[in-house]
Structures are given as structure tokens and as C-alpha cells.
Specification:
- This protein has one domain.
- It is an all-alpha fold and 239 residues long.
- The protein has eleven helices and no strands.
Length: 239
């Protein structure tokens, strides 16, 4: 299945499984209570820093909007043309994680922080839609758990980093994942635990279900190339 077709199925499924607001709010309250018991309920304080600083707020908004879908599109095209094996791994990981997400969205709908008391949604509806005039009813408003804004950005960064050789480029490639991980909290769109859940799901499917073996002739060529230095060394000893 192509990434485009998979995304159509995913977003159509998200709308179909959207739960009720009351249940989504109740689940959000449960998550907030759990975070409080774990002493990681820092979303309100982190967002307050963003509200007090124009730089942090604007940086968070820009990261949330432009380092997710635009980044996924660029990563998809880059991998498709430059590195087909890593493209297939990325595509498979998106499909598997999206399937897991649909099950969780259906069974555990959750209201994002911006719908809860004490939080502010800093990203406008127009910016959230990338300034495309489609109805907000096309989006599942209660799909906060898990956060694939975090998980899928991480997948794209990992796939691009794996496709390049230079270490400094690998480091640069994962920076968007860090920025998005911070921005989903400062913008009032996700909690700590649903961000962690999205990242963990992405990592597991990327490592376990997304791997694509190289063709046999490629593996054979690599093995033959690795054996050549040993054969040359053996010949030198005999001579």
C-alpha cells in the first residue's frame, strides 16, 4: 500500500472512531491524575513559560505546524527517490503504527490539553490546517492518545538519519523530533504521557515491524566485497 492510500484510510478511520466529548474529557482527567501521581504533570508550567515568552510561543507554534506534515512529505519524497529500502521501512512503520493508533483512538478517546481547564491552545485553526480551508469536522478532535505528531515526526527523522552517512547530518536530521516533542506540550496539544506513548509506538514498529531486508543479490555483493580484503591478505601470506 502506498503512503498516500494509507493516510486516506488512516484519517478516514480517525473520523469514524471519534468518541464522545464527555468520555474524552474523562479519559484526559484520568491521564492528568496519573501524571500527578508520577510527578510529571508539568504541561501547565511549561505552557506558562511559552505564554510568557513570545519567542518560545512562536517557535513552538512554527515547530508544531511546519515540522510535522511538511516534514513527513519531504522525508517521503527524499527516501522514495534516494533510498528505497529505508522508504519501505518508513512506509511500513507508518502503516503499522497508524493501525495501532486507530485502535487506541477508538477505545481510549482523549481530549487534548487545550480543551481542558487551565490550558490554552496557541495554534490557530487556520494554522493547524496549514491554511487549507477544509472543515475541522474532518479531523478527530479527541485523538490525543497516542501523539503521532511526536511519533511520526520521530519516524521521519529516524528514517532520514539512517539514510545518510555523515554523523553531523544524522544529528541535524533528528532535531525536528526534539522540537516537535517540546512544541506539542507548549502549544497545549498533547500531554507528556501521550507524547511518550507516540514515540514508543513509533520506535517499536520501526525496529520490529518496519524493517525491510535488502535483496539477496545486494547482501551477496556486500559479503563478497567484505571477503576480498581477507582473500588478498591470505594471498600475500602465501606469496
Amino acid at each position: 500500500m502506498s503512503i498516500g492510500a494509507a493516510l486516506v484510510v488512516y484519517f478516514g478511520g480517525r473520523v469514524l472512531v471519534e468518541g464522545s466529548r464527555s468520555r474524552a474529557v474523562s479519559n484526559a482527567e484520568t491521564l492528568i491524575d496519573l501524571e500527578a501521581r508520577l510527578n510529571i504533570d508539568v504541561e501547565a508550567s511549561l505552557q506558562q513559560h511559552a505564554l510568557d515568552s513570545d519567542i518560545i510561543r512562536i517557535a513552538g507554534n512554527l515547530s508544531y505546524v511546519w515540522l510535522h506534515w511538511p516534514l513527513l512529505l519531504v522525508a517521503t519524497l527524499l527516501l522514495f527517490f534516494r533510498d528505497p529500502p529505508h522508504y519501505r521501512q518508513f512506509r511500513n512503520a507508518l502503516c503499522v503504527s497508524g493501525s495501532v493508533g486507530l485502535v487506541l483512538f477508538a477505545t481510549f478517546p482523549m481530549a487534548p490539553p487545550r480543551f481542558m481547564p487551565g490550558f490554552v491552545g496557541t495554534v490557530s485553526d487556520d494554522a493547524r490546517r496549514h491554511y487549507l480551508d477544509y472543515p475541522l469536522s474532518w479531523a478527530n478532535q479527541y485523538a490525543a492518545f497516542p501523539s503521532f505528531h511526536v511519533g511520526w515526526t520521530l519516524l521521519a527523522c529516524l528514517a532520514v538519519a539512517a539514510s545518510v552517512d555523515r554523523r553531523w547530518v544524522k544529528v541535524v536530521a533528528v532535531i525536528p523530533a526534539v522540537l516537535v516533542g517540546m512544541s506539542v506540550v507548549t502549544t497545549g496539544n498533547h500531554y507528556i504521557l501521550d507524547s511518550v506513548a507516540g514515540a514508543l509506538i513509533a520506535l517499536v514498529v520501526y525496529e520490529r515491524f518496519g524493517r525491510v531486508s535488502r535483496p539477496r543479490h545486494v547482501r551477496g555483493a556486500a559479503t563478497h566485497a567484505a571477503a576480498k580484503p581477507a582473500e588478498q591478505a591470505h594471498a600475500e601470506v602465501l606469496s
